[in-house]
UniProtKB/TrEMBL annotation, chains A, B:
Residues 182-242 form the NrtR DNA-binding winged helix domain. It comes from Dyadobacter endophyticus. Coiled coil: none annotated. This is DNA mismatch repair protein MutT. InterPro entries: NUDIX_hydrolase-like_dom_sf, NUDIX_hydrolase_dom, WH-like_DNA-bd_sf, WH_DNA-bd_sf, WHD_NrtR.
Length: 247, 247
DNA sequence: TTTTATTGTCTCAAAGATAGACAATAATGC
DNA sequence: GCATTATTGTCTATCTTTGAGACAATAAAA
């Protein structure tokens, strides 16, 4: 394992960062995992990090994700670069320092560190899909908390992070049928209703039940398993599993 | 106007570049504009450049495009980031220097410049669409020539530039109908046949003439103009124009 | 005036999407 | 047990979109 190093070190690529939009699904709702920074002032920020010199960008995104959330082995894909000219977190950091002057003593940035991290940054946006029930986000000492928020009711985030989520969601909608990636958000087995509710929360609109089932089954990518007896007073639904390989 | 500066200067973002895939259309063929470097050894390389500190990435892409080709005011969009870890042009530059040792005297890189430019680079891919007849590519002193090559018969290019073109073409195919951008490749007025041949060259397959015409007209984005008398012994086709605003 | 090549449009069939209907069924209440 | 209830799986009819063939219209040449 590599040591976690100070971001002022030169073995990162300068002025280039990675931000991750992590989608999860629970209680019929599409959610995004957002850490809240361990400082006074209510700063929410997407998990971010930098790229080592000897590391590919996809690799870096996976490492950052694991370092910041403990989540690994999940679907991850770049979706857009954010790079307007005045894109810097200096305003955010100045405000953070202002609000935390007293407690910041030992944690205070050195001038060199501060210069490094407040320069203008270009950021590569990645989005991730996880089965939310399979994963326990683990916060780092950087964070006060790390929680799932409904994608359409996120807390106010720093910089352009809300715009990043919007852009990631658009990409997710465009790619969903093309690349058959919805199943990354569900447990291994699921009912047709669960899959439909997932689609509905991603597209924020209702689908007709009969036609949805037909369309999905016609894709010929699901394996029908045993029935799921929920204890409810109605017909038991089948469980399905995504079949990745050959029939 | 800003001076063209040496790439070793610190007012560029380090280790981040932009590469442009410029699509044009002529003689029923989709082409890409590729400069050939003004050195011995047959080096073809997509127009590339770096990002100034006070400049947005889209802005940078437009500037690079104009500096390297003289082309401006065209459709331009980022499509993907290329960032594998060992992505560096050091092999290419070493080979270039080896083959041009004698003539390189005054042009030889300083050690500092060489270090700067041979580090590992992350590159943002942009693709551009131009009306090839409206544009006269202007080569810089960097280039021996700058020419259009059929997209499926490009000369061997340095590094991963062929992969960039492939990826750009994929994106173009995906976006073509979604964003109605095909018209950027044609003159202001065009016949239905010309539009169809453009589509065929982008997707590399034939479309049925009758259905193509119906599909396009049903989009309700074309304005029918007068007929075009070509002098050929057949019915004269209508000219069309892309109507961007309201009907 | 006839011929030729191409264009614009129509029709019909096939495939896909949309909406309504209904039997099947797992538990509950009597 | 037996009717009731909520939900599931599927069928059918309808509408829309896509694909293929056919044909009249027409600009110039023979």
């Amino acid at each position: 394992m590599r040591d976690i190093q100070s971001p002022s070190e030169q073995d990162y690529i300068q002025q280039l960062s990675i931000d991750c939009v992590i989608f999860g699904y629970q209680d019929s709702q599409l959610s995004v995992l957002v850490p809240k920074l361990n400082f006074r002032g209510d700063f929410w920020a997407l998990p971010s990090g930098f790229i080592y010199q000897d590391e590919g960008i996809d690799e870096a995104a996976r490492r950052i994700l694991e370092d910041r959330t403990g989540i690994k082995d999940i679907y991850l894909e770049q979706f857009r670069v954010f790079g307007n000219s005045p894109r810097s977190n200096i305003r955010f950091l100045e405000r953070l320092i202002e609000l935390n002057e007293d407690t910041l003593g030992d944690k205070r940035f050195g001038r060199k560190e501060f210069d490094w991290i407040t320069r203008r940054f270009v950021s590569i946006g990645y989005y991730a899909l996880v089965d939310l029930n399979k994963v326990v986000p683990r916060k780092t000492e950087l964070d006060e908390s790390i929680d799932w928020y409904p994608v359409r009711a996120l807390p106010p985030m720093i910089m352009d992070h809300q715009e990043m989520v919007n852009s990631a969601l658009e990409t997710l909608q465009l790619n969903l049928d093309q690349k058959l990636i919805a199943f990354n958000l569900l447990p291994e087995t699921f009912t047709m209703r669960e899959l439909q509710e997932l689609y509905e929360s991603i597209f924020d609109r209702a689908f007709a039940r009969n036609n949805f089932q037909k369309k999905i089954l016609d894709l010929d990518v699901l394996e029908r398993l045993e029935k799921k007896f929920t204890g409810a007073a109605n017909k038991a639904p089948f469980l399905y599993r995504f079949r990745n390989g050959n029939p």
